[in-house]
Amino acid sequence: MQSRGLHRDDAERYLFVDQTYGGNNPVAQADWTAKRLVWVPSEKHGFEAASLKEERGDEVVVELAENGKRAVFSKDDVQKMNPPKFTKVEDMAELTCLNEASVLHNLKDRYYSGLIYTYSGLFCVVINPYKNLPIYTEQIVEMYRGKKRHEVPPHIYAISETAYRSMLQDREDQSILCTGESGAGKTENTKKVIQYLAHVASSHKVRKEHATPGELEQQLLQANPILEAFGNAKTVKNDNSSRFGKFIRINFDVSGYIVGANIETYLLEKSRAIRQAKDERTFHIFYQLLAGSGEHVKTDLLLESFDQYRFLSNRYLPIPGQQDREIYQETLESMNIMGFSHEEIMCMLRMVSAVLQFGNIVFRKERNTDQASMPDNTAAQKLCHLLGLNVTEFSRAILMPRIKVGRDYVQKAQTKEQADFAVEALAKALYERLFRWLVHRINRALDRTKRQGASFIGILDIAGFEIFELNSFEQLCINYTNEKLQQLFNHTMFVLEQE
After folding, report:
1. Considering the entire predicted model, what is its pTM?
2. What residues act catalytically?
3. Does 488 have pLDDT greater than 90?
């Protein structure tokens, strides 16, 4: 019992504001009043504190708090500072002066005290701590269970609890939207929402079916590692960046128990399967398979070393603190829990190997014509073995495809560029079909009911906003979607706030 209490105390410093700080200190209040403290722009910090000395028409003279130097600013650039009693406030809607500097200062203040969750009206703002915090345990789940938002500190669990209670009380479907730049923690928080709902909506259900208790909830939690293996990749900003968007719909019955789930995916960045920018990786599954599979599987799937594949632009690029070999075993374990058969798993891995083999097919330009030829068909033979195709027919389809002209079919010779483009397009299409099939197969495992649930909670987790040196068409779509979602977010929130 004592160790549980200690664990709770350890977690509380990452949830509750330390009451010993001088927020309500009369001395701090008097100091704030006497110095007439304000925020002024700063190149180094964004904004810094200063005390107002005098006003000259449209300009003000201030004394910077950090070094005591005097500076002149336009009145429009100076922002009011909140009284000390609002230091580290949990909901920024309570701030007397609601401006950019005060919002950023409050978030920064809380973040440096270990408090990563802060409310802003109906929003919950989360800042990535880049380390594991002890605030996602079962004890913490129980702490938020059945509580109203204002009774407990800000947390993703409080948002999940509000959505769950609103669904049960109002009999209305709910949605939780996660938006932000790449690496902000959208996918991790989505997992926490699922973890919370799987815990509170299944705890004391006695199942009459032969299924083991909690099996559906267990599978719901295992869907993420599988999707991450096939849909996530290392980018410059983020070691585990979602390269697709997903909408997870969790269905509940009238009593509030989980009865099934469904996942929709959007905008898979399939171009990543054939080329990657400097210091980036393709989807995790490629590295997991090559690093983690045994000799028998390597022989069966005709796997080679990392430097043999053209589609792995940066060869083998390890992620610090992670072992692809171990994660491969975890991915296989998740597939087993999800009820995938050995044959299904091997077929999927065969497709992954086939995508890599597409990149190894080399075309040459024939000397006297523009026509493409394939001097060495070893890679094509391996590919056709993996896909169960006839190598002669495959080579003819790429080099001399049949084209319909009027009522007749003619064979048209392809140039080297056209042939290269064709195999890349086929590789991308094959990987996307594999990903779609995977999502469909996961949905089949999660959809237990022949009838629809009474209500659902939806969680939208889209790929993050990111600007690269070289931006793919998919990244443009991702950024555009983020912008539109942010506009919808703002419009909905402000309309609700006004009401």
Report:
1. 0.89
2. 182-183, 187, 238, 241-242, 464, 466
3. no
